[in-house]
Structures
1.
Amino acid sequence: MQVLQVSNVLLNVPSESKEDAIARVGNKLVENGYVAAPYVEGMLLREQSMTTYIGNQVAIPHSMPEYVQYIQQSGIVVAQYPDGVDFGGGNVAKLVIGIAGRGEEHMEVLSQIATVCMEEENVEKLVRAQTVEDVMAVLGGTL
């Protein structure tokens, strides 16, 4: 299952609100044909109900269960924020990884991202990545 494509990596995004960051990765999922537009609304609602910040400078926005009907195919979007995005409570994400997973693929994709991002060394490589190829070298093998 190859859900990470070169066109899904956004580097050096200027800091913005968490809502704008979630909308950015969500709209990229829409633009690249992974989800229909209402899925982005579900991503924003998910963040209102509970944070998608997982620690280690990483947030993984995804949608509420009732919005999975808008997923057309599994995909992820990686947005790198060198100056970070404030997710509240002192939590600053330098990587915002929007995901959309169909069926069982959702937990598989989430698990693979979490496994890679548990290692601080991997997160640092992603935060310092200068090219899309740098990101693909860290994430591309598993996603």
2.
Amino acid sequence: MSETRTRKPGTPGKFSRWMQVRAGARAVRKIRGGRARMMGMDMLVLNTVGKRSGQPRETALTWFPDGDDGWLIVASGGGSQNPDWYANMMARPERVSVEMPGREAVPVTPRRLDGGELDTAWQRIAEAQPRYAKYQSKSDRRYPVVRLTRR
């Protein structure tokens, strides 16, 4: 008799996680090659360092402009929990950088938004990409929004 493991709703299984890793690696290659749009959204590569492992990590993410010097990213993580990149970034904020299409990495400082800043940023994000608002409405938690600025 095999043991069945249960996982939180919205938490990817092994196959889903494998597909996410493969798709993420492909997206990173495309961004580095100068192509940076997915489903009508701009993409960047977020470079972090593993919270526990200390190993370099790279994640392709959508982003939204925030003034002349900032980028907004959303830590949706499949709905039920914050993504690993978010935990890594917040644990080692001094080791975070971003790569825009075909450009070198730029060191950035991440700052989680809250209060009125979060509300304003979320409104802009939801207007730019209504799918984020729809996705958020299906989750029991509020997605963190992080502002990245050049360091």
